[in-house]
């Protein structure tokens, strides 16, 4: 009995350490020195892409690389780096692709502009269609001969 | 042909073309922003000797390859015969042993070939992040000044070696010779 108590006491710190490691590994809330640090961490892990799994943020991803990246974000946050510095750090290593929100720059300009371009193209097409419909020939007037024919038909000749 | 019919045809072909290009692109083939930059600094234990601390300087001095590998990575195993050939051909290859267990890595190297000159042990992927490692295997080419000149994500193959790696090594060695000659001339 005593022995098992002793063992479990011995195990406790280990268990806690394992718990912290797990927390880091799955992106659970971890200890920060300030609320601002926690906010920065929480924001960043949702803005950085796991470059292995590609369609996941490092917050969602179970990949080991994502865990490494989270740990680096955590370490840098605790060390006092601001969000821009951390994102820069990742971009310098993994390229712009690591950012979930691509920055507006020369090679992404088309990407950013495409929704507006599509809207513009659609709008122009729609407007042309409306105008085109207005210009469509109205029902032509009956000619004199047609009117006479109609008259004749109506009167039952 | 009627313009009205032509416009949707052009639009659909353009869309299909885009989709087709998208299919053909490998989204892992991301250009590394590290190409053209000096090898990132690191401080890691040597795989063979925990007392011996290695830094990026241990990788630098001549044109060399840096290979990132692990025992759990079967592609790395498949790639190694090629690395052996390169090493036998006189191209120095250094390595990061990435997210691995030291015992497993040492045992692996003791029962199979070892193409590596210097192996840095990176169990937590610390240097991995600094070097922008995505996944194993990865291979970098460093010039004699320690600038990263090439990065390959995924295994090397013979075609890549012939088309890209070996010509680059050749070119970088020429550069190195020229630089050294210039230095001698200046002094």
TrEMBL record, chain A:
Family: Belongs to the CcmH/CycL/Ccl2/NrfF family.
GO molecular function: metal ion binding
Key words of the record: Cytochrome c-type biogenesis, Heme, Iron, Membrane, Metal-binding, Signal, Transmembrane, Transmembrane helix
Protein name (database record): Cytochrome c-type biogenesis protein
Residues annotated as transmembrane: 109-129
Pfam family, one: CcmH
GO cellular component terms listed in the entry, alphabetical order: plasma membrane
Function summary: Possible subunit of a heme lyase.
Keyword Repeat assigned: no
Gene Ontology BP, a term: cytochrome complex assembly
PANTHER family reported in the protein's UniProt record: CYTOCHROME C-TYPE BIOGENESIS PROTEIN CCMH
InterPro entries assigned to the protein according to its UniProt record, in alphabetical order: C-type_cytochrome_biogenesis, CcmH/CycL/Ccl2/NrfF_N, CcmH/CycL/NrfF/Ccl2_sf
Keyword match Ubl conjugation: no
Positions of the CcmH/CycL/Ccl2/NrfF N-terminal domain: 18-153
From TrEMBL, chain B:
Compartment list: Cell inner membrane
Signal peptide boundaries: none
Membrane topology: Single-pass membrane protein
InterPro entries, per the entry: Periplasmic_diS_OxRdtase_DsbE, Redoxin, Thioredoxin-like_sf, Thioredoxin_domain, Thioredoxin_ResA/DsbE_sf
SUPFAM superfamilies (UniProt xref): Thioredoxin-like
Transmembrane segments: 6-25
Keywords for the protein's UniProt record, in alphabetical order: Cytochrome c-type biogenesis, Disulfide bond, Membrane, Redox-active center, Transmembrane, Transmembrane helix
Annotated CDD domains: TlpA_like_DsbE
Domain of life: Bacteria
Domain Thioredoxin stretches: 33-174
Any one cellular-component term (Gene Ontology): plasma membrane
Gene3D superfamilies xref list: Glutaredoxin
Protein name per UniProt: Thiol:disulfide interchange protein DsbE
Originating species: Halomonas chromatireducens
């Amino acid at each position: 009995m005593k022995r098992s108590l002793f063992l479990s006491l011995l195990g406790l710190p280990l268990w806690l350490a394992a718990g912290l490691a797990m927390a880091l590994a799955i992106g659970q809330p971890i200890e920060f020195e300030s609320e601002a640090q926690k906010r920065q961490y929480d924001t960043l892990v949702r803005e950085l892409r796991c470059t292995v799994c590609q369609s996941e943020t490092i917050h969602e991803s179970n990949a080991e690389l994502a865990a490494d990246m989270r740990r680096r974000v955590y370490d840098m946050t605790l060390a006092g780096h601001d969000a821009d510095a951390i994102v820069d750090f990742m971009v310098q290593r993994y390229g712009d692709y690591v950012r979930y929100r691509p920055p507006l720059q020369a090679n992404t300009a088309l990407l950013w502009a495409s929704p507006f371009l599509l809207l513009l193209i659609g709008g122009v097409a729609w407007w042309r269609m409306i105008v085109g419909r207005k210009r469509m020939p109205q029902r032509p007037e009956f000619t004199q001969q047609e009117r006479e024919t109609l008259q004749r038909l109506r009167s039952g000749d | 042909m009627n313009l009205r019919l032509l416009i949707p045809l052009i639009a659909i072909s353009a869309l299909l073309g885009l989709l087709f290009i998208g299919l053909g692109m490998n989204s892992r083939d991301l250009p590394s922003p590290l190409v053209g930059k000096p090898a990132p600094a690191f401080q890691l234990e040597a795989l063979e000797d925990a007392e011996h601390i290695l830094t990026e300087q241990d990788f630098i001095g001549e044109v060399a390859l840096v290979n990132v590998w692990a025992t759990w990575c079967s592609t790395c195993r498949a790639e190694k015969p090629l690395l052996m050939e390169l090493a036998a051909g006189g191209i120095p290859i250094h390595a990061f042993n990435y997210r691995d267990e030291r015992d497993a890595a040492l045992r692996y190297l003791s029962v199979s070939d070892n193409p590596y000159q210097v192996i840095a042990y990176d169990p937590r992927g610390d240097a991995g992040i600094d070097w922008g490692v995505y996944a194993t295997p990865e291979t970098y080419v460093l010039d004699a000044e320690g600038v990263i000149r090439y990065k390959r994500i995924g295994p090397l193959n013979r075609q890549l070696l012939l088309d890209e790696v070996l010509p680059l090594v050749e070119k970088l060695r020429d550069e190195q010779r020229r630089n050294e000659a210039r230095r001698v001339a200046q002094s």
